Amino acid sequence: MDKDLPQRMTPEEFRHWGRRVVDWIADYWASVEEFPVCSRNAPGEVRAQLPPAPPQQGEDFDDFLRDVERIILPGITHWQSPNFFAFFPASVSGPSVLGELLSAGLGIQGMLWATSPACTELETHVLDWMADMIGLPHRFKSSGPGGGVIQDSASSATLCALLAARERAEGMNCRQSGISLPLVAYASREAHSSVEKAVAIAGLGGGRLRLVEVDERLAMRPRALAEAVHRDREAGLHPFFVCATVGTTSSLAVDPVEEVGRVCAAEGLWLHVDAAMAGVAALCPEHEHLRQGLDCADSYCVNPHKWMLTNFDCDCFYVADRAPLVGALTVLPEYLRNAPTESGQVIDYRDWQIPLGRRFRALKLWFVIRYFGVEGLQSLIRKHIALAGEFAQWVAAHPDFELAAPPSLNLVCFRHGDGEEFNRWLLQQVNASGRSYLSHAVLDGKFALRLCIGQANTERSHVEGVWELLKDLAQESCP
Amino acid sequence: MDKDLPQRMTPEEFRHWGRRVVDWIADYWASVEEFPVCSRNAPGEVRAQLPPAPPQQGEDFDDFLRDVERIILPGITHWQSPNFFAFFPASVSGPSVLGELLSAGLGIQGMLWATSPACTELETHVLDWMADMIGLPHRFKSSGPGGGVIQDSASSATLCALLAARERAEGMNCRQSGISLPLVAYASREAHSSVEKAVAIAGLGGGRLRLVEVDERLAMRPRALAEAVHRDREAGLHPFFVCATVGTTSSLAVDPVEEVGRVCAAEGLWLHVDAAMAGVAALCPEHEHLRQGLDCADSYCVNPHKWMLTNFDCDCFYVADRAPLVGALTVLPEYLRNAPTESGQVIDYRDWQIPLGRRFRALKLWFVIRYFGVEGLQSLIRKHIALAGEFAQWVAAHPDFELAAPPSLNLVCFRHGDGEEFNRWLLQQVNASGRSYLSHAVLDGKFALRLCIGQANTERSHVEGVWELLKDLAQESCP
User: Fold this and answer.
1) For all residues of chain A together, what is the average pLDDT?
2) N or C, which end of chain A is more exposed by having fewer CB within 10 Å?
């Protein structure tokens, strides 16, 4: 390979620029605290700096890194900052980034087992590891009729679960004949918006999603679920799917999966458990309540790309029975026919997901689990939960602040006593300071600040920092 | 950042191992020709080499690269080999891999404009560049009501197009009320299987997809489409969506988009154009027939991750009007509310796709376009098309081989004169040799070998190599 053609970066150039990018990332990580956490860009600011037309001739790679620093960096919010406490975390790690890099370099397609056996088999294997690590029931492992797959997101996992449930409810005939029953789905009021999106995509219409009442801990009331199912049956509708949440987005409330599962078993409903971030904490035996009731679940998902140091995208999605999932999603055009597929001996993951193509995502998860070991990952989870517990104590002990919900794992929802307007101002001030980034929640109709601790590089000092900032801002404003 | 905690790879370690991985990839690319193109693994071979349980303590990164060589490499098919001629290409490039690496290191989430403005704005901007590069009508650019977004695959683009079409057909009410009309979709018999999959996911049922007859060039017959639409209307059904293909998977046939578009306009149908691989050739003005009729299209997609040196996943999806797409897919839970979204001044790409989360995929496309320049990308396309043309000439001139379809762009379908069984044997022998990798197609009911040229590192010698191999195998078998 030489550079006599304009369309080639030679191996030597790749080595050179690859080192530069690796060093750039190492430097970025080392200095990430120095940037304002939340981007201060105004709409259009990035585009205004970009040329209106693409270059006709190739440009120097050197310019790209300069432009990344000049144009891109001010326009990003630093999700890797130790002062990032908004939404859910997305902490990456060295071994994960290098797994992603290797995957990009290999450039293979894993749509079929046959198009790269190792891509499929490593994924199946590492997902079996994960199932054991977080204590999933054996039936989610690949040794039986179930198994795991990497999805891009919990949203896609929820959609796939709903489509499999729809297929089963329609006698494995929906794929061919379309929706014939008046299907109804259920989730708690606090469930993630992806349930609503999945119900819409599947053609049921948002009106066929029941948002079930929650209790004072913001977890689904199983009795309210049972009543809703009963009402719908009375009305001639066809209940088929329940999404229980292990760790809601707003407050990490945990639905009582066991009781919800009993309702599902009695009524013949598909139970999907969305444990997107909180499920990772099930790595630690002391959080085994996060695994309760999963024997009744038909599907489950957890996101290493949130709280397990793995780059987006890496959602681990499990089904207890592959048949309805594959039944809903399989395609086998002539150009994909091959002997291993026809032997029935292999998994073709194209039938477990929406897209056909797929990259080698298991590499990064394999690297993360091996590099940190189960104990390393556990210690990180424990550190974050301990820090959140300390923060919650500071809030609870302060006369002007209060907890807005029971603290759960690594998440604390809290507020100042001076009402919504003041809390909105406080949030805006914290985020505008650049020193920290929080998000918000509305719990029981009341506005709250929301702090979630999940970055690998967050230390006690960073949590103290945002607490001091909050107190100072509150004090300054009421001298 | 130091390594007193087990859960941290220090910046210095990252620099060290990052260089190792970069060098490993450079070495891999330099030697990729030496591997058997298609993996020879048997089912279970990879898993048999992996420990049944994950490690409790962390392991050395050094071991990972050893295991990649020992376990993974024999289990992959080398999509980056210059002798890979199967399916569609997935050629990566240095700048693309480094863009992916940078994206992984930054580790940001682009679900909302507000969560990293540069992620959204660079994507919008580079997709406008792409629209100009391939000559899309102006209405697909972001300056009007339309615009582009990166999807993971053409499958997802087709699904999103179908969902937007469904929303429009149902008076923008499907999202809330579900499917109320007897909707019918259309594509040619040669269209990609993702159309069937999308129709199934959307809840219409495969029975509501009409596979329209094709002509002798395997392109959709617009008259047959018009007749099918007419028949369905007569039967009380509701035609709503047509997928035209620019470059079918089996033979790169190009549907007559202009005539198909006229039918769609007359009948009020959504026209989606799936130009997954072939659309890239529209970079070259001499292939402007690939752009014909797009004024009538409602949506369009093309995959730089196939034939434009960009890592999977990177499908560019365009709509002429965002409203039905966003109408079908938007969610706005409280925890995602933010001022820029409410101002209406920004694009939130979560509403343009199935998942909520999204990584910074525009970086790699930006790097590719800038590094190679439009002219560099054009020259690569031209080289591949010229090589395919030469191969087609060799086939046509040989007494024992024949073309199975008119050669189209970089794809040649051909066969030996000795019948299907012999051709299957030939394919099996070529692929088992490890020296090359072809796939197959069935055209008009007849089996054909299929050669697609799209790797950046494929030279004339590689194409000659597979031709010599084919001739030798054919000769040996009939001495």
Assistant:
1) 96
2) C
CB contact under 8 A, A354 and B440: no
ipTM: 0.97
**Average pLDDT for B269-282:** 97
Residue pLDDT, tens place only, A52-74:
999 999 999 999 999 999 999 99
- State the pLDDT confidence band at B2, using cuts at 50, 70 and 90: very low
Residues 262-281 of B with CB under 8 A from A: none
Task: Judge: B205–A56 Cβ closer than 8 Å, yes or no.
Answer: no
Q: Kindly list the residues from chain B whose CB atom is less than 8 angstroms away from the CB atom of residue A43.
A: 113, 117, 340, 343, 345-346
Mean pLDDT, range A177-201, rounded to an integer: 97
pTM recorded for the entire structure: 0.97
Q: What is the mean pLDDT of chain B?
A: 96
Q: Indicate if the pLDDT at residue A452 is higher than 50.
A: yes
**What percentage of chain B exceeds 70 in pLDDT?**
98
Residue A120 burial class via C-beta count within 10 angstroms: exposed 0-12, middle 13-18, buried 19 and up: buried
Residue B6: per-residue pLDDT: 55
Cα-Cα-Cα-Cα dihedral of A384, A386, A391, A397, to 10°?
A: 170
Contact B312 A201 (CB under 8 A): no
Question: Using 50, 70 and 90 to split pLDDT, how confident is the model at B478?
Answer: low
Number of A–B residue contacts, CB under 8 Å: 541
Q: For A288-303, give one letter per residue: b (16+ CB within 10 A) or e.
A: eebbbbbebbbbbbbb
Q: Which whole number is the average pLDDT over A118-141?
A: 98
Question: Measured between alpha carbons, how far is B386 from B392 in angstroms, rounded to an integer?
Answer: 10
Query: Which residue of chain A comes nearest to B206, CA vs CA?
Result: A176
Tell me the two tokens of residue B473.
């195998």
Q: Do B18 and A45 touch (CB under 8 A)?
A: no
The pair phi, psi for residue B363, each rounded to 5°, is -55, -45
Mutate to test the interface with B, among A250, A312, A365, A384 (most CBs of B within 10 A): A312
Buried b (16+ CB within 10 A) or exposed e, B234-263: eeebebbbbbbbbbbbbbbbbbbbebbbbb
Domains of chain B, CATH where assigned = 11-90 (1.20.1340.10), 108-359 (3.40.640.10), 368-477 (3.90.1150.10)
- One DSSP character per residue, A270-303 reads EEEEE-TTGGGGGGSGGGGGGGTTGGG-SEEEE-
Using an 8 Å Cβ cutoff, are B222 and B232 in contact? Answer: no
